[in-house]
Amino acid sequence: MKKVLCLLLCGVMLFSLCGCNLVLDVLVGPILTEEQEAIPHLGFSRGTLFEEGEDEDILYFTVEEFAQQPIEYDVYRSSMHYETLTENDRVVYHAYEYALENGYNNLLLDDLLVEDPNALLTALEFLALDSPLLEQNVRFTYGNFTSYYPVVGLNGLYETQAELDGYYVTVHNIEKPHWDKKMIALDKAKEIVNALPEKATDEEKALALFQHVSEKVTYGDEMYPELLTAVYPHLYDALVGGKSQCDGMANALALLYRLAGINCAEKMDPPKKDKDEVGHTWVFFELDGKWYNSDATADAEGNPSTEHMRGGYYFAFPDELLTHPTVYPTIYAPSTDGLYITVDARLDNCEGDDLYMTALSALNHHHREWFLVTIKDYDEDAAAEQVQDIVNYYLCSCRYYAFKLKNDSTAFLVCLYDE
To answer: Using an 8 Å Cβ cutoff, are 177 and 164 in contact?
Structure first.
């Protein structure tokens, strides 16, 4: 009897000193059901991850709880890339989106959600291509982690902590000061779109907004001496500061299109193989069921145009005229025709008079303003010689441009001007 009383007394003392949860953990361990163990969790935090006391500041959700969390700014993004993801990868995608809006630069993702660690990076990249509110030159670090989240154990009698194994991702682009600047840029974008003529068609809106970004925003690589590690809010730089690089200019145009009701997403090319630098970014948009590319990085001087060419070479052009390869090409609908810019002929070389004869026919279709051909084996001297014949025939002056295309052929554009 005395032994029993002593054991009870020790139990009471242990309970008083350490608390009910620890006593039950010591006696029976943290009991989780199979159902509880099969529920994936997500965690969010700000600041530097895994510092002392950091675990106390992590906000944890089950997937079901997370699905109830509001995401307000998804109305400004496309779903083009999102729709290609698996169910689990969509949860990860939304986790990045939630983190972006709420300033959580650290994400903890249960390994039950992640079949392939590379999918973590794909979901982040897809959000950057869908949403103009996240830079394409996204900067992140990631790895494995173990954390602990609160859980009710022992059939609901007490709360303990369960181990969470998975992956952490720290997204360096996600900071509240950056988000605040993006909200200023959003207000500026709304102002620009609201200034469009009330009865403007989608085609007129698409052209006007492209011209706004192309003409009002200058390319400023020199702004970023640390470009490879920069995570500046380029959307703000473009729309408010008027100076950015392709990331900010593409995001600006995509946001303007979304606000104007024009369906769009963004494309990018792979990083350069010989350099650790981000690839190029441009906009892919839809008008009347047809898809077009637009690259507002080409400013007014670098984007040859005539009156009837409207937005110029880099506005609403087909895939054939892309100067950059595209990552994830199977995601996008084919763009087979330009809205204003079209290829008049596809030549193997500049020999003979094929270029000259093509030009005579094409100029009749383009108000004697311009013609465009692609040449597989381009020779500048031979092409220039035939262009001189055209100039002599029409008694005018001209400018010609050669663009190296992604398939290694050359797009050759000639614009005529009255003397």
So the answer is: no
